[in-house]
Amino acid sequence: MRYAEIPVSDAYELQNAGGLVLVCTRGPDGRYDVAPVAWCCPLDYSPASKLILVLDTGHRTYADLSDSGEFAVALPTKGQMDLVARAGSMSGHDADKYAELGIPAFPAREVDARIPEGVAGWLECRLSRIVVEGTSGVVMGEVLRAEAVPDAWKLRVHYVREGLRFTPGESF
After folding, report:
1. Euclidean distance between the first and the last CA atom of the chain, given in angstroms as a whole number
2. Is the pLDDT of residue 71 over 50?
3. How far is 36 from 22, CA to CA, in rounded Å?
4. pLDDT at residue 116 greater than cutoff 50
């Protein structure tokens, strides 16, 4: 094998093949928000599943879940990549993404969040802890409820870097 040095600023790409998620929140002003997040992984599974998200502390999503103590994580499909791109291209501080983008959604059952229709599944979470490192908030949450279509993992979109995403068994 031939190896090439990877710039340390790009080293995250070697591990960043986790499923892309949409973090769904509600702010103290009553407005719902949705933001694509590429850094999400399991933390624990017993007695209940827990997960970790890494969020920019300047984003509305971070402020919303910090204030409310709850959030939902929706699993977008390949067919929702336009939604992911559009939701990620605007700030929740400046716009009501659900209204402006016309996102059809339904209410979560255990937390106050809106789930975009057509996702492969979702997890409703209670905030457990946040650790701030620089401008990143490492958010830990406990899953209160989860729902998904059968074989949802096959529909997940995995993000490596801008322009490089894939679903299991397929690249695009």
Report:
1. 26
2. yes
3. 4
4. yes
User: Looking at the chain, how many residues does it have?
Assistant: 172
The encoded tokens of residue 122 equal: 């979702």
How many whole angstroms separate alpha carbon 12 and alpha carbon 6?
A: 10
> How many helical (H) and strand (E) elements, i.e. helices and strands, does the chain have?
3, 12
Number of folded domains in the chain? Answer: 1
The total of other beta-carbon atoms located within 10 Å of residue 81's CB is 15
Asked if pLDDT for residue 170 goes beyond 90, the answer is no
Q: Which CATH number do you get for residue 126?
A: 2.30.110.10
CA-based nearest residue to 111, from 23, 1, 36: 23
| Structure tokens belonging to residue 119 | 């996702």
Is 109 within the bounds of a domain?
yes
Tell whether 80 is covered by a domain. yes
Whether 33 and 64 have beta carbons less than 8 Å apart is answered as yes
| Domain extent for 133 | 19-148
